[in-house]
Amino acid sequence: METSLLLRALESSPAVKRLSDYLPLPGTRRELGGAIGSLGSAVIASLHRAHPGKTFVTICESPHDALSLQNDLEALLDNIEQIFYYPQEEILPYEDSQPHFAIGGQRVEAVEAILSGRARVIVTSSRALQERVPIPAHLTELRSTYKVGDQLPFGNLSKALEGRGFERVSLVEQVGHFAVRGGILDVFSVSAGDPVRLEFWDDEIVSIRTFDVTDQRSNGTLQETHILPVDLRRPNTQEEVNDNKSESLVEILPSDAILVQVGEWDIDVDFNKRWARVSTLYDNLVDSGASPELPSNLFIPSDTLSDRLSRFSRIDLTERRSTSLCVNSVEPPEIDRDMGRLENYLQEGSHKGFASIILCENSGQLQRLEEILGGLKRIPSGTSLGLGALASGFEILCSDPPLRVLSDHEVFRRTRRVRRNRKFRGSVAIENLAQLTPGAFVVHMDHGVGRFQGLEHIHIASQELEVMLIEYAAGDMLRVPVAKLDLVERWVGASEDAKPPRIHRIGGKRWKTLRKKTERVIEEMTTELLELYASRQTVNGHAFSEDTRWQLEMESAFLYDDTPDQRKAAEAVKKDMEAPRPMDRLVCGDVGYGKTEIAIRAAFKAVQDGKQVAVLAPTTIVVEQHRHSFGERLADYPVRVGSLSRFQNGKQQKKVLAELAGGETDIVIGTHRLL
């Protein structure tokens, strides 16, 4: 694997090898220079591989840097389950708003992993270290474990969950929710892959099952489950203050943990500035007549925190070359989408004995780059392509073999998207229920159109069920269990001002007749469509050429990662174009989901075959937007893009039409004026 080759080469560097062999002792500090680009991330990964039992706490200047480092580490290491991100609050001090629940969830996960001994690499920021957070001193105080056969008062569990930040709802849809139905309790906890359903018989847990939030159906059984709080909440009483013995992340770290500061910035100065800023805010609020919390309740004083950190082993990763330990490294040259320059760079590296690695963010990008370079047989020896994009590349001149690392977004001048890998949602919410309000019209597959009246709880055979209440004609009420939501859909009219539908009668003939008639019309329409498409298969069209090198380069230079559906749609469109029959394809997608990029790729493919392309847009504003998008994406190629709309006067329109007729314009974008 390419990342393993990268780390092995780095570990052969004398400076990295010496640092790994002689880690700093507690209370001492060492600096490693030459850590340019993502080389610092690779050094941390290398140290973790050499010392898997150690805990490395990497400290970055900002949340963006921390997330970028986390992405790098997860690309470099196989055991990503040992990497945890401890984020800072994303609100200003004294700001009257609640932090996003994902922040609290990530903190809880990291703390639980530290207390249980699972965390080996912790990524955080300087502010997160300075923030005061009430952290339980022991794992048992943070994590509650429930097993089949446990005896506990059912009512007490609901109160305990509310005390831990969970919200009681009628239907569990995301992390932090719990719901009670008779003797069943559903809960979705932080760090859980799926929500769990605890079934009680009196005060005994008789079963624990996982379930899917999309249909609320059980899909697995467990013997025990762990429930973590939604966040690390500030204590409300003095008794709670006394119970929380820790006040920051620093206090629960193992004594032999190694703190790694990434980048050339002074962490003590950072602490001092933050403390001064919070103190000033406090003074201003007091002067205005407010009664804010003391700064020491929100942040640890800078001198206190600096003293605590000084007791740990510390490593500074910087780009400076004047240090006693320094990796002989340089930045790679800018490729800037010049494939000839890339090939020369790889050929030169091969002749000089370098190992060259190009890391790509996804398999589609890797395949495109491989084709651009002429396939595996033409790629210079010593060069390999692999998955796992880094923030930026680097060259190591002192490793064995010397190493060159590039990332695909650097080659194609794309922006690397930093991902928040942990998403605190359990798939999508149940739209049919979440979008309904009492009085809304709904359609039941068996009974027709009714009016949604809300949710209610009913008791059947000593069991409590949650049901949807739907009103039909003559005041008849239909109760549909939540588990059968797939039978009910929201009624949607032909337009926003469509007249309300007539409500059907339960058991009446009108809905059955309408449904049979609709099914018959659909069958007739299907037959017509099949005949139409069968006839179209016999019509000859222009079969466009396969993707050229320019096509692959242009697509690889897209600023964003293709989504799976976007990639699938683009490939389907190009496959249609290469077929010897006219294309008939509709690409659907919401605003901002990448439809224009698919059109640009198809248009560019057509132009390369000597064809002209007309792009029809609904308004003049959209024409200008598309003209800008097409022109910007195709600026590096000999493609001329024109537009035709009412923004141009008669003389300008005639010129555009003349250039179009003369073949000077390759792509024209316009409103109905085109037709």
| Mean pLDDT value | 85
Cα-atom radius of gyration? 31 Å
Shape: globular
- In the sheet with the most strands, the strands line up as 3-4-2-13-14-1-15
Distance, first to last CA: 55 Å
User: What would CATH call the class of the largest domain?
Assistant: Alpha Beta
What is the count of β-strands?
28
How many DSSP helices? 22
User: Percentage of helical residues?
Assistant: 25-40%
Number of domains: 5
Secondary structure category: alpha/beta
* Biggest beta-sheet profile: 7 strands, parallel
The CATH topology annotation of the largest domain reads as Rossmann fold
Strand content: 15-25%
Instruction: Specify the CATH architecture of the largest domain.
Output: 3-Layer(aba) Sandwich
Overall description:
Helix content is 35%, strand content 20%. It contains 22 helices and 28 strands. The strands form 6 sheets. Strands 3-4-2-13-14-1-15 form a 7-stranded parallel β-sheet. A 6-stranded mixed β-sheet has the order 6-7-8-9-10-11, covered by helices on one side. A 5-stranded mixed β-sheet has the order 16-19-20-17-18, sandwiched between helices. Helix 1 crosses helix 3, helix 3 crosses helix 4 (63-76) and helix 14 packs antiparallel against helix 18. The radius of gyration is 31 Å and the shape is globular. Mean pLDDT is 85; it is low at 240-245 and 422-432.
